[in-house]
Amino acid sequence: MKVDGTHYRSLWWDHDRDALQIIDQRWLPHDFRIQQVVTLQDFADAIVEMRVRGAPLIGATAAYGMALAMRLDPSDAAMDQAWGFLNATRPTAVNLRWALDRCRVHLRPLEQKQRAPAALALAHEIADEDVEINRSIGAHGLDLIRKIAAGKSAGEPVRLLTHCNAGWLATVDWGTATSPMYQAHEAGIPIHVWVDETRPRNQGALTAWELGSHGISHSYISDNAGGHLMQHGQVDLVITGTDRTTRRGDVCNKIGTYLKALAAKDNGVPFYVALPSPTIDWTVSDGISGIPIEERGEREITHVQGKTEYGGIANVQVTPDGTPGGNPAFDVTPNRLVTGLITERGICSATEEGLAGLFPDMASVEPA
Question: Please, what are the domains in the chain?
């Protein structure tokens, strides 16, 4: 997508510098910074510290990390060590393990001298695949928006609500939940997006920054406002992303998603989840018991980062001294609350039969 008229992906390979470049998202939406990722520790820090974030982008970043590891040492031992080092960075998003497994399976049969160029080529492939997957998700999600728009008065917008950032910053490009929004806007369909702030890291601000840069009408709202808007008929459709989806359609996403799904169910608002197939964990059936939930540092709760009236970026404490913070980063929305799943192959019910119908080539994996 575009920043000040220039197209960017969230990460890209600089062939002149022969190194990966990322947008350091810790500073957005107030400052646009690009970082060159040089060492394997840099890759791990980028994922852990959320310089890159979002399940698809984490997976692509890890693939480039494996490429660097193979350049430094193409041995089996180094490959396994890099796999373990990168896989330990964040526990919830399944794309991380998916990308690392794909790299190891692809590289293991090759001679050591072939591994470095093959690993880099595979990382490029994974990044390009993600872009096309997300474009396709948007095309299928656009059909939902078109149907709602057809029942509106001329010029009346389709009112969408989203939680966290499932935009192009969370993927390599397009985004998952935002891809239908971008495509609706480009098709001339009037839309307005309610953007949840998404405490504690206020990732809704990233979504607002994206939408604003693209010229899409939106409002930034508190996390607790969504239910009220639904009660008063001001939300036509909810679309969120996901970091891991079980084989039966339970959805793990940023903390607070479950509450939006409950409100949507209570008010008859369709609740859809946009998911690329690599986020489906076919080994897990029950999301509540089977998906590990990352517990992040309490400082994300006790402090907030923002722009001061003088233009600087500062962190301030919002809690009383000595008050501890609890910070589960994700929650699980049971499939019974999900209207449907928007994938690159089409839209299906949030059930094992629905997912298996779209992905018969993947569904044969036995649950753990």
Answer: 2-129 (1.20.120.420), 137-358 (3.40.50.10470)
